[in-house]
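Here we describe the complex-level prediction in full. Unlike the single-chain runs in Section 2.1, the two entities below were treated as one system.
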Amino acid sequence: MDWQGQKSAEMLMQVLLVASAVAAFLTGYAMADFQLMLLVYAGGVVLTALVTVPNWPFFNRHPLKWLDTPEADRHPRPQISSTTASTGGKKKTGKNK
Amino acid sequence: MHSWTQRLLAAATTAALLLAATCAAASALDAFHVPSVEAQAHVTKINQFRKQLNGNDKVTLTFNISAKLESLFTWNTKQVFVFVTAEYENSKNSLNQVSLWDRIIPDKDHANVQVEVKSKYPLIDQGTSLRGKKVQLVLHWHIMPNAGRMMRGKMPLSEFNLPDTYTS
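The structure predicted for the assembly as a whole is:
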């Protein structure tokens, strides 16, 4: 799942859950049936899980574009200098004493 | 949100939170519900009025109850517990309450109670103050909701006088 997909999955989950809770409450109140409210809500939760939990193809429509290899070679990763590494070692031995 | 387990847990947490909110809303609506109970009860017979061996007064009696309790039920009501108490005052206590009869009403279809019953539990005083005593019958109800807190209510019914002497 790409970044856009994760964002839309979270949005979808929240919107669907709130919508099913509101729908369940209204039907339960209208039909004066508490159990019906719970069943409608359970249905909404299962639907939400089916829509947002699996990694569906429509969550992968915006793949990340990585830099090409020649472009990456022109900006090498900064190297850790040997001086900082040695001071770190000294501190460790000092603590152990 | 990067893995399916994370999405499942997020959905489950949000769902549980919203379920609690829905139950709270259903329970809050009950606060605006005002029941109108109609009920009557009359003592038809004092079956037995005697002093127990341990010295306490004991009465068993028969009474009829007519109660329309449909209005206690809302969509958030699991069941209703009703009971009739005998209430009186004596020198020891300003209020004595003794439960005489009770019933669990599971739904609205059984909420119209029309019965003549012997007291399920005897009226036993802690002492000997019942002779010639004026006793008030009171109907109490406890409404047990599907979600939310239990609500109580009561209404006074008829009064009756116990005889001045023991019957046996």
